[in-house]
Design a protein that fits this description.
The protein is 40% helix and 17% strand. It is an alpha/beta fold. It folds into 2 domains: 130 residues, Alpha-Beta Complex (Aspartate Aminotransferase, domain 1); 256 residues, Aspartate Aminotransferase, domain 2 (3-Layer(aba) Sandwich). Helix 2 packs antiparallel against helix 10. The longest helix has 21 residues. It starts with 5 loop residues before the first helix and ends with a helix.
Length: 407
């Protein structure tokens, strides 16, 4: 590929010019949330300054303009993930709400006592807790496929857990705690052989790689805007049209209805059946702008550049005595989780912050992963397309200083 335009990209993110504790900001907490380019900020500002009104319901000029921007964003997202139709793009608050929506609609309509739901041991809490709640309510059974010490799914064990009782497989595409990229095509193919639908948690994957839902042939795909350089409070649930049409509504209220009397309600068509009430209009517009921005750069280019960053960071980290990387599979996204001998991850995070370096320290909403590796928490540096090798050098220098301080 041609040289990645890193300086141009960095210049388009205003917050990267900030200083933290009189040090240049080194922002390496991208798995928690990404910073926003000026194009996204401007799109929201423009909407509120010139085109804001409620969508779908008004015949006046501002409502028409706002609706065009809102539905235009849906079209952009359809193209970004290669869905067949905008009817398959449901706006939600984020990945968590998308998974809960599936649990409260698809699962309630299709899964009963004794049926099984299969997940993996590397899931985020948002792909564990909704299923625990559902199983407690219905008597369904939650099955968990194990991982190994490299942080990889033990695929043959996973396949053995697929049974005649399995009614849904819900799997993370890329682990937020380990960076592991699961063999989702293989998983989906195994599921299809037994006519089992698959939900992919794409919150971490979508900012780092090209996602083509038709090529994957997944039934549902969930992701959050704030990890895709868009605003927080907005996300997407993709679902195959036939499945969405068969599912009952998630919430009742305005916009998800076609006709209401006191005797009965006729629900709206897709995608509006699942979008009750006034939506996050500006956040949807911001998500559309983020998709435009990433499309111009090219997700394959982003993936290649971030792979370079991860390789560079991993080699540097391996040279530091007393540092242990948690999650070392070859199929991995731009996440470096690690622990240091005799230094708690919270101390690592606090000390690095004093140097202007933002990382995450904790269990990363993946407590079962921490339990498996027998650590209370990890420090996690997660990279984005605006990060540089020079910033990685600053991180590694900071870690070495920290080790010196703690003796």
């Amino acid at each position: 590929m041609t040289a990645f335009p890193i300086e141009k990209i960095r210049a388009e993110f205003p917050i990267l010019k900030e200083k933290i504790r009189n040090k240049p900001l080194v922002y390496l907490d991208n798995a928690a949330t990404c910073q926003k380019p000026q194009a996204v900020i401007d799109s929201i500002s423009h909407l509120y300054s010139h085109e804001y009104a409620n969508v779908h319901r008004g015949v006046h000029t501002l409502s028409v303009k706002a609706t065009d921007r809102y539905e235009g964003a849906r079209e952009k997202i359809k193209n970004f993930i290669n869905a067949k139709s905008t009817k398959e793009i449901i706006f939600v608050k984020g990945t968590t709400e998308a998974i809960n929506l599936i649990a409260q609609t698809f699962a309630k309509a299709n899964i009963t006592k004794g049926d099984e739901i299969l997940i993996t041991a590397m899931e985020h809490h948002s792909n564990i807790v909704p299923w625990q709640m559902f199983c407690a309510e219905t008597g369904a059974v939650l099955k968990v496929a194990p991982i190994n010490l490299q942080g990889e799914l033990i695929y043959d064990q996973f396949e053995k857990l697929i049974s005649d009782k399995t009614r849904l497989i819900s799997v993370v595409h890329m682990s937020n705690a380990l960076g592991t990229i699961n063999p989702v095509k293989k998983i989906i193919a195994a599921a299809k052989a037994k006519n089992i639908p698959v939900l992919l948690d794409g919150a971490q994957a979508i900012p780092h790689m090209t996602v083509d839902v038709q090529a994957l042939d997944c039934d549902f795909y969930a992701f959050s805007g704030h990890k895709l350089y868009a605003p927080s409070g907005i996300g997407v649930l993709y679902g195959k049209q036939a499945l969405l049409e068969a599912m009952p509504p998630y919430q009742g209220g305005g916009d998800m209805i076609r006709k209401v009397t006191f005797e009965e309600t006729e629900y709206n068509t897709l995608p509006y059946k699942f979008e009750a009430g006034t939506p996050s209009i500006a956040d949807v517009v911001g998500l559309g702008a983020a998709v435009d921005y990433l499309t111009e750069i090219g997700m394959d280019n982003v993936a290649a550049y971030e792979a370079e960053l991860l390789d560079y960071a991993t080699k540097k980290a391996e040279q530091i005595e007393g540092l242990r990387i948690i999650g070392q599979t070859k199929e991995k996204g731009a996440i470096l989780s690690f622990v240091l001998d005799k230094i708690h991850p919270h101390d690592i995070g606090t000390m690095l912050d004093s140097l202007g370096i933002a990382i995450r320290a904790g269990h990363h909403c993946a407590m079962p992963v921490m339990d498996f590796f027998e650590v209370p928490a990890t420090a996690r540096a997660s990279f984005a397309m605006y990060n540089t090798k020079e910033e990685i050098d600053v991180l590694m220098s900071g870690i070495e200083q920290l080790i010196e301080v703690f003796g």
